[in-house]
Structure to design on (533 residues):
């Protein structure tokens, strides 16, 4: 199932220049990245962790940090030098080039910069436009798009680059329900390693094989969604999937835990253990 | 306050989209606009706020938009944009909330009292000295809510107020909206979270292609598969799961589950 990537954080402390408080505190985690969901309340450090992996801290935003980060056994800086990383920002409008007259050109912008052949660019733009329901807008100006459409455009522009690691910061916050459903369906099938911060807890539970819980700059837990939600069942800061809350209310479990996906809820209701 | 729309039309230059509302009345309480991206929700909200130059009429308890706003926009309509960066311009979080109150020539101690209590209500007190641009997107959204709540206008127009908010903040905002509803304010908001819409249980106005496709309570819309399909929307997650469980009357929200 897709490409996996080994990540190793060891004792990572980080603070933004001018702020004493640590945005990440003693982050230590050795894990495999397939589909990782990053959850936790505001100010937990979710965006910071994504920026850190993308290499934009230090280069763009001054920070002080200690500790080590390695991807596939290589120091992060070296890994970034030879690999393609894709970062989709929480505010999608802020990452568009601003130099493209059409949606097509915006998606193609990064590909031109990579020096790809015209035919390959055309092929890739059409392919990602189709995946993200942007085909009808290719000739329109990016400025004429709605918030949710701009968000899909930002994602399309990044995945057209075929990154080795995709980092997504709340990428569906402005999408309509169908757009969000299509996006998560695509994400589930994608073979690119992904770390996604999102408040769409139902979708994360369906798509992610792992969740990392951050609170106040500290990693609280990393593990399978079911284990995470059981552990944080009574924590009001952490949202739970609807399937979990329904299972809890109906008093039915699946495999020793309340269900976290639709499939598990059906099984739990049909032949699971009842409390 | 009742907002009456008659023959409202608006189109963007160079775009095939056009907003077209022959007649619509927003009553006091909450009306949530839902619909696909590009359906015209934000455009309608901007028209009601008098931010775009439309054809047709929008009346507020019988008074037309221009006359209504001429009496002082700040105390009449509180509007928050989808992108909070579009409306934040002061050098600190405190000044951002105080700004509107100062424009009303309110006494200094009253400005301070209201600013502090509003920041407190939204959990922003610890950021009061920060530049709004240094806030996270979710705190910027909360700050835009604070700027309008402090002014206590008759009408609230919110473009995706739940966007980017974490779980505790969403609970807080739901509670604040319920307070506004109880105070008899007229609130129009845009929302993509169907579970939230079902939980609130207030009137929904479904938009598609610049027109109103459904107007009424959530259940009537979410139970109608044909309407959902035509308008490119999905029912709440709880409803989808309830249907999969073959519940006799599928639940719209968790509160309905026995």
């Amino acid at each position: 199932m897709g490409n996996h990537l080994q990540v190793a954080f060891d004792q990572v402390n980080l603070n933004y220049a001018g702020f004493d408080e640590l945005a990440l505190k003693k982050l230590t985690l050795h894990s495999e990245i397939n589909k990782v969901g990053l959850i936790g309340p505001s100010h937990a450090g979710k965006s910071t962790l994504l920026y850190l992996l993308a290499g934009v801290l230090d280069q763009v935003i001054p920070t002080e940090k200690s500790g080590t980060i390695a991807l596939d056994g290589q120091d992060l800086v070296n890994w970034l030098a030879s690999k393609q990383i894709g970062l989709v920002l929480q505010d999608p409008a802020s990452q568009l080039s601003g130099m493209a007259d059409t949606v097509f050109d915006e998606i193609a912008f990064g590909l031109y910069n990579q020096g790809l052949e015209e035919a390959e660019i055309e092929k890739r733009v059409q392919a990602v436009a189709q995946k993200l329901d942007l085909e009808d807008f290719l000739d329109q100006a990016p400025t004429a798009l709605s918030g949710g459409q701009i968000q899909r455009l930002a994602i399309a522009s990044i995945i057209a680059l075929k990154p080795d690691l995709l980092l997504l910061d709340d990428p569906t916050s402005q999408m309509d329900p169908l757009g969000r459903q299509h996006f998560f369906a695509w994400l589930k099938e994608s073979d690119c390693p992904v770390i996604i911060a999102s408040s769409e807890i139902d979708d994360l539970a369906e798509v992610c094989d792992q969740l990392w819980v951050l609170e106040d700059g500290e990693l609280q837990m990393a593990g399978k969604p079911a284990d995470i939600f059981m552990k944080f069942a009574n924590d009001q800061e952490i949202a739970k999937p609807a399937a979990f809350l329904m299972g809890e209310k109906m008093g039915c479990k699946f495999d020793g835990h309340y269900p976290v996906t639709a499939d598990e809820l059906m099984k739990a209701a049909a032949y699971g253990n009842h409390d | 306050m009742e907002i009456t729309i008659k023959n409202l039309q608006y189109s963007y230059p160079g775009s095939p989209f056009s907003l077209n509302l022959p007649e619509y009345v927003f009553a006091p309480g909450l009306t949530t606009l839902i619909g696909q991206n590009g359906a015209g929700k934000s455009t309608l909200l901007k028209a009601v706020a008098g931010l775009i130059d439309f054809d047709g009429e929008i009346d507020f308890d019988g008074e037309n938009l221009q006359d209504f706003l001429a009496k002082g926009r700040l105390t009449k309509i509180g509007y928050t944009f989808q992108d909070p960066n579009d409306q934040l311009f002061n050098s600190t979080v405190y000044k951002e909330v105080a700004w509107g109150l100062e424009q009303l020539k309110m006494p200094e101690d009253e400005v301070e009292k209201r600013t502090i209590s509003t920041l407190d209500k939204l959990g922003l007190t610890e950021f009061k000295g920060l530049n709004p641009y240094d806030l996270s997107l979710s705190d910027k959204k909360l700050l835009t809510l604070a700027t309008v709540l402090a002014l206590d206008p008759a009408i609230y127009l919110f473009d995706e107020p739940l966007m980017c908010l974490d779980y505790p903040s969403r609970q807080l905002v739901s509670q604040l909206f319920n307070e506004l509803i109880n105070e008899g304010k007229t609130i129009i908001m845009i929302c993509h979270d169907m579970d939230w819409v079902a939980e609130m249980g207030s009137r929904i106005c479904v938009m598609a292609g610049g027109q109103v496709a459904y107007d009424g309570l959530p259940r009537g819309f979410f139970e109608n598969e044909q309407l959902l399909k035509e308008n490119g929307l999905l029912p709440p997650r709880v409803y989808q799961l309830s249907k999969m469980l073959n519940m006799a009357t599928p639940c719209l929200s968790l509160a309905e589950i026995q």
Summary: Chain B has one domain: 3-256. Residues 251 and 257 of chain B are 6 Å apart (CA to CA). The longest strand of chain B covers residues 3-11. The mean pLDDT of chain B is 95.
